[in-house]
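Suppose you are handed a protein chain with no further information: no name, no annotation, nothing but its sequence. What can you learn? This example shows the usual starting point.
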Amino acid sequence: MEEREKKQIMEIRKNLLRNEKKSYVSFAVGVVFFIISIIWIVLKMRDGQKISLFDWFYVGIFALNGISYSMVGFGFQMAELFGKAYLLINDEKISLKAKVLEKEQTVFWSDIHEISYNLNKLYVHKTDSTTLTFNLSAFEYAFKNEIKEFIRSIANEKQISAAL
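A reasonable first move is to predict its three-dimensional structure. Written in structure tokens, the prediction is:
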């Protein structure tokens, strides 16, 4: 039972879009934009002026700016609305989707012959004589080391040559 639980825990999963840092300045700017959009309409109504198409467009732009800045302030990136970017390494596969609009790169451990690392790139030599390259240059140094150690441990477990 313990062996099974240990295998379930053995995984690195990271959302590459999620920013854990919250920015109170971005949130405040978002609130200010949103308040300006509301005040614009309220002032027009109070003065009895006709609210034109330009006014609604202006309010919409400011409100959307306010919402987007507030979301960024909470650590949510706008790119998350359009897709995912992640790194997943477990005992089944290595999978990387570095950017929202990039194609996912996945290789299963059963297809790996050898793994090497050089100049921020992880080279996976597959059993069908092809090589898949994972670019790790966007990651912090400590996280790269964690990735290499984790891959080395799984490779040793699966008896795959790993020059990391």
